[in-house]
Structure to design on (103 residues):
């Protein structure tokens, strides 16, 4: 399948899933999620990709919900914040810095 076809199929799938989950106003930053999944798979193990994507989404939803605003701006900020944390952990792990889990 060509890259353009993959992007189209992924967009259609994302829209179908968003509709089924009744989150109609959701705009998925597919490039961010794919990059995050790729980096976590490369720096940890392959199975870290979906776990990381889920946890970043969960953290972003939790953060946006605490803000008391359902605006697109606060959702985007929450996603960026959670993704930045995950990207940093991936970079640290790739650099050999395992560290201790934080609460």
């Amino acid at each position: 399948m060509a890259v353009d076809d993959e992007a189209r199929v992924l967009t259609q799938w994302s829209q179908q899933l968003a509709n089924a989950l009744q989150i109609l106003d959701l705009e998925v930053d597919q490039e961010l999620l794919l990059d995050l999944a790729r980096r976590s798979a490369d720096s940890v193990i392959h199975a870290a990709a979906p776990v990381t994507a889920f946890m970043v989404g969960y953290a972003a939803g939790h953060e946006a919900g605490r803000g008391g605003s359902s605006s697109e701006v606060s959702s985007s900020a929450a996603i960026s914040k959670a993704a930045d944390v995950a990207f940093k952990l991936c970079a640290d792990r790739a650099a050999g810095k395992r560290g201790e889990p934080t609460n």
User: Anything to note?
Assistant: The helical segments are 3-20, 30-43, 48-66, 72-94.
